[in-house]
Amino acid sequence: MIRLPLLGRSVSSEGARSALYDGLVFCAIFAAFSVVLLIGRYWMAAPMPAAHISRSPGMLPLYSLYSLVRIAIAYVLSLVFAVGYGYLAAYNRRLQPFLIALLDILQSIPVLSFLPGVMLAMVSLFPGHQIGIELGAIVLIFTGQVWNMAFSFYSSLRSIPRELREASRIFGFSAWQRFFQLELPYGAIGLVWNSMVSVAGGWFFLMACEMFVLGNRDFRLPGLGSYLQTAASAGDTGAMLWGLTAMIGVIVLLDQAVWRPVIAWSDKFKFEQVESAHTSGSPMLDLLRRSRVLEVCQERVVAPLWELLGRHFAQRRGREDKHRPGPYGRIAAVLAGVLVLAVLAWGGEHAFRLLRGLGRADIGLTMRAAGVTFLRVAAALAIASLWTIPAGVAIGFHPRLARIAQPLSQIAASVPATALFPVLLLAIVNAGGGLGVGSILLMLLGTQWYILFNVIAGAIAIPSDLKEAASLFRFGTLDRWRTLILPGIFPYLVTGLVTASGGAWNASIVAEYFHFQGRILSTVGLGAVISSATDSGRFDTLLLATIVMAALVVGVNRLVWRPLYRLAETRYKLET
User: Fold this and answer.
1) pTM, whole model, 2 decimals?
2) In this structure, are residues 136 and 123 in contact, taking their beta carbons and an 8 Å threshold?
């Protein structure tokens, strides 16, 4: 008699909460549909190559939406490309050297070096619509996001323990089953944390991607990046503060609505035999799990479809093992190789004709600038490593600290250093320094996060049983670092250093050449050569500087990073 009302109240309360969760899910779906309609109407309108950028704070919500959509689309493209490219590079022995070398070259090419070809091609493909310019900006953001994700997934696949691969073979997994049940889950933690730093890199280069000059053409897109660039050029401190506040608000919203749930979800993919005593949590993930609408979709649509696909791929595994490429497949491969060689020959001949007009003075200046930028990149990596390695390990080992430090790191990594650079430059000049020193600081602000987020991912991925064993044997601080921490994070650390190196070269284009209050502040460096050549439309100098930068990055990767990758794949794998 007494418990019935309480039980009724409990059921009623649970039903009310379920209805609330379902209502929130419906609102989110409706909001997403409205955004799609708004963006579609704007993209299909007539092109606006030089849109007016208002410095009114009232325009910030709309500008934030435009920038967020561009970064989101670029991220989806980056994720698909990174997974496919990393998989192909990890398992195709014939193409692996070529694909890794190509990835080295592509990550070393600055965003502005992609700019002329990408933007002109997209505008030509969609001459009567705004979508051409928008897709050009999205592709440019993509080039600033994708490379570290591809390196991360490639490194994860190469470091999968041998016993897990043998188990997948014993159970007769097909290639698709192995991908979804072993390879993608094993690389999930690295992909999640590199996704966060990739999106942060997208925000970093947003100012260069939304507002730029190409020869005598001025391309501007409404967004947070162009708003901050306009405010910085005008010296409007109030507008810059409003823009930074809006950007931080968007980043915090993304952290709570996207990254925190994804981090909590990815905890189940840790390779360990003992469940961790501390796990990440997320109110948003709890809300999604309690939604009756999503539960019905999971039970009625997703689960049956997944089961059907599983049976289909299980039936194909026998035929898949016996499949051999026939003569038509070999002919197609040869034709594709001939086509690639023809394209490379045509591109090489065109590049030679373009570079033929350069004199010795231009070549000598570019080489000297490359040497100076190389020293700045090395200094930025050394300074970044000194604090990111211990800080990343501390965050990865302490979930409570991670709940506070992770969103703060995400905010700090996402705020464009170029928006803060006028204040930093003024402080450096007052202290007796110059842009040569300031450019190292700007490189550091733009690239240290690659190392930090990869170290955090590596520390989180260390199995809890190994941590407990180190505690039981009472390892001292030095022994713990030497036998557990450094070997455990080593593959992730190498990935972080490789991508940070490429990011530092990319950051040189904004660190060594800066527009401020109608003036151009520059110093000797390869980034300054590229930015200056882009502003003036000197494509021969731009091509030469890009080739030199790519050659330097590939050379360092071959001599330094590649041996470290091999060491990580052979000695520091989590296997018995």
Assistant:
1) 0.70
2) yes
pLDDT digits (tens, 9 = 90+) for 289-343: 666 666 667 666 666 776 776 666 656 555 544 445 455 556 765 676 677 677 7
Q: What angle do CA 307, 313, 319 make, to 5 degrees?
A: 155
Residue 522 has pLDDT above 70, yes or no: yes
The bridge status of strand 513-516 relative to strand 217-220 is unpaired
Range list of H helices, 415-561: 417-430, 435-461, 464-472, 477-480, 486-511, 526-536, 539-556
Q: What is the pLDDT of residues 184-194, one digit of tens each?
A: 888 888 888 88
Closest CA to 529 of 516, 552, 511: 511
d(Cα 560, Cα 378) in Å, to the nearest integer?
12
Q: Concatenated DSSP letters for 126-156?
A: STTSTHHHHHHHHHHHHHHHHHHHHHHHHHH
Single out the residue of 469, 467, 88, 91 nearest to residue 270, CA to CA: 467
CB 89 within 8 A of CB 99: yes
Label each residue of 378-425 as H, E or C: HHHHHHHHHHHHHHHHHHHHCHHHHHHHHHHHHHHHHCCHHHHHHHHH
Asked if residue 404 has pLDDT above 50, the reply is yes
Question: Under CATH, to which class is 44-281+357-570 assigned?
Answer: mainly alpha
Give dist(CA 193, CA 316) in Å, integer: 34
505 closest CA partner among 557, 432, 575: 557
The residues facing 421 across adjacent strands are: none
Instruction: Report percent pLDDT > 70 for the chain.
Output: 67
Measure the CA angle with vertex 398, ends 392 and 400; round to 5°. Answer: 115
The length of the chain in residues reads: 576
Tens of pLDDT, residues 87-142: 988 888 877 877 887 777 777 666 656 666 676 677 667 666 667 778 878 888 88
Where do the domains of the chain lie?
Answer: 11-43+283-317, 44-281+357-570
Strands 513-516, 519-522: pairing is: antiparallel
